[in-house]
C-alpha cells in the first residue's frame, strides 16, 4: 500500500482538491510547483497562502504536509508561444486546440516531479488533469498519463504511480469532491484563496472566487460552481 505522495500543486481549485485528497489518503505528502513565466504567476503566491490555510484550518492534515518544492522552468516560457506565456488574446488555433495549450508542459512537469519524487522517496505523483471538463489538451488525457507512468517507471527503474483523482469528473463534481473531503471550510478556502484565472486577476471577487470572469479558466470554474450550488440547493 502506498504511503507517500507528491502533489503537483499550482494553487488552483483542481490542485487544491487533489492536495486534500492526498492528505486524506497518504501518510506523508509533499508539494511541487513550476515557475514557467506564466502570465498568471500570481498563482505562485496564492499557493503559499493555500498551504498556510490548510495547515491552520485542518490541523489533522498539517502533520502530514511536508516540504514544498518550487522549480524554475523559465525555459518552458522561452520555447512557448501561447496565450499563457505571451500577452496575446485567447483564441482557437487551426489545430483545433486553444492557444492556452503549452506544448510539453505537463510532460515536463511530470518528468521533473518524478525526479524529485525519486530523490525524496515518494511513491505516488498526484495531478489534477482531467479528460471530462477540459480544453482538449492532449497532455491531460488518461492515455497520456498512463504512457508517462510507464515511461518514467522504466526510465528511472522505479515504480511510480501517477494518480489523477479528477480525470473522469466535471468541475461541478470537483466542487463536490472538495466538500466531501473538507466540508464547507475547504469550499470557502478554495473560493477565497486559490487562483485559477489565466489573466492573474485578483481584483474581482465572484461567488466562485477571484478572477477576470471571462477567460476560459474562469468560465469553466464559474459554470461548475453554478451547477454545484444548484444541486446543493
Can you tell me about this structure?
47% of the residues lie in helices and 13% in strands. With 233 residues, it is α/β, with parallel strands linked by helices. The protein has a single domain (4-232), classed as HUPs (Rossmann fold). The strands form two sheets. Strands 3-2-1-4-5 form a five-stranded parallel β-sheet, with helices on both faces. Strand 6 and strand 7 form a beta hairpin.
Classify the secondary structure makeup into a structural class: alpha/beta
The tally of strands reads 7
Number of helices: 8
Helix content: 40-55%
Q: Which fold name fills CATH's third level, the topology?
A: Rossmann fold
> What Rg do the Cα atoms give?
17 Å
Biggest sheet, strands in spatial order? Answer: 3-2-1-4-5
CATH class: Alpha Beta
| CATH superfamily heading | HUPs
**SS strand fraction:** 5-15%
Order of helices and strands: EHEHHEHHEHEHEEH
Terminal Cα span:
38 Å
- Rounded average pLDDT: 89
Low-confidence blocks of residues = none
Overall geometry comes to globular
Largest sheet: 5 strands, parallel
Integer tally of domains: 1
Q: Per CATH, which architecture?
A: 3-Layer(aba) Sandwich
